[in-house]
Amino acid sequence: MKKGLFALLSLILVVALAACGNKNTGDNSAASSDDKGTETKPVTITVGATAVPHAEILKHIQPALEKEGVKLEIKEFSDYVQPNVQTFQKQLDANFFQHKPYLDDENSTRNMDLVPVVAVHVEPLGAYSKKHKSIDELPDGAVVGIPNDKTNGGRALSLLAKNGLIKLKEDNMIKATVKDIVENPKNIKIKESDAAMLPRQLSEFDLAVINTNYALDAGIDPLKDALFMEDKDNPYANILVARPDNKDSDAIKKLAAALTSDDVKKFIEDKYKGAVIPAF
User: Fold this and answer.
1) What does the alpha-carbon distance between residue 155 and residue 11 come to, in Å, rounded to a whole number?
2) Is the distance from CB of 207 to CB of 135 less than 8 angstroms?
3) Strand 277-278 and strand 115-122: pairing?
4) How far is Cα 95 from Cα 79, in angstroms, rounded to an integer?
5) Distance (Å, rounded) from C-alpha 57 to C-alpha 65?
6) Spatial separation of the C-alpha atoms in residues 256 and 270, rounded to whole Å
7) pLDDT in tens, 199-246
8) Is the Cβ–Cβ distance between 225 and 161 less than 8 Å?
9) What does the chain look like in DSSP terms, one character per residue?
10) In which order are the strands placed within the sheet that holds 207-210?
């Protein structure tokens, strides 16, 4: 009797251990499934951009990127300093608002090492006025506003020189300053101001040279309202910018591919009608 009871208890113990073993196998399978789920979970990247056209272009590609496993978050800025600073400090994964001459100057000035990833579009710089319909109407001593950052300031001065308002020491001086003006037949007075503020201050000037993104954001139509603009062929293509540690990541590569797709080219051409030009 005791032997029979012992055998029965032993059998129950074996069955219980087998059940526990099966339960553990199930847990491991679930963990494996979770691991696979983690691998396929969308990667989130945050990109800093000025509102128009950069953020608009980024918003356009959000659905396509999400299908590729990249969730794109966009942080909008109204200035040209913080997007680079925050990218360098890893508060952002990348940014999209600037051209390479500006990036080069910022890297040098602020001791950063941000890198260009891909060129997306060109925004020809334009000159605008609420007081005059042509540059021939500009009076002697006219006040002309230009961006106060080095590269866009030099770019603006080069544009004024190309249209005969001033003459510089050299043609197309990217880093020209007012000290490089050698001829000023109309005695125009150059006033430097924050690039983002120039559209709002336009009525204060006889003429202001404004970045296209800020012009568009202020409801100014570059093709209709500009007295003159840069040529389409210029070295100021706006670029996607990242860091050396993440520029070759899968997410950044997918973002770069989306920004230079046929779909984005058509979007730029249809929406901005020549005020913004694809650079690819």
Assistant:
1) 89
2) yes
3) antiparallel
4) 12
5) 12
6) 20
7) 999 999 999 999 999 999 999 999 999 999 998 778 899 999 999 999
8) no
9) -HHHHHHHHHHHHHHHHHHHHHHHHHHHHHHHHHHHHHHHSPEEEEEEEEIIIIIHHHHHHHHHHHHTTEEEEEEEESSSSHHHHHHHTTSSSEEEEEEHHHHHHHHHHHT---EEEEEEEE---EEE-SS-SSGGGPPTT-EEEEESSHHHHHHHHHHHHHTTS-EESSTT-TT--GGGEEE-TT--EEEEE-GGGTTTTGGGSSEEEE-HHHHHHTT--HHHH-SEE--S--S-EEEEEE-TTTTTSHHHHHHHHHHTSHHHHHHHHHHHTTSSEE--
10) 189-193, 143-147, 207-210, 126-128, 228-229
- Terminal CA-to-CA distance of the chain, rounded, Å? 90
Pairing of strands 126-128, 228-229: antiparallel
Amino acid at 278: P
Report whether 65 contacts 258 (CB < 8 A): yes
* Bridge pairing between strands 237-242 and 94-99: antiparallel
Query: Is 103 within 8 Å of 116 (Cβ atoms)?
Result: yes
CB count, 10 Å around CB of 100?
Answer: 16
Q: What pTM was estimated for this model as a whole?
A: 0.79
Beta 43-50 vs 94-99: how paired, if at all? parallel
Closest alpha carbon to 225 in 240, 237, 214, 233: 214
Peptide bond into 83 cis (omega under 30): no
pLDDT in tens, 44-74: 999 999 999 999 999 999 999 999 999 999 9
CA gap 97, 76 in Å, rounded = 10
Distance CA 70, CA 55 (A): 16
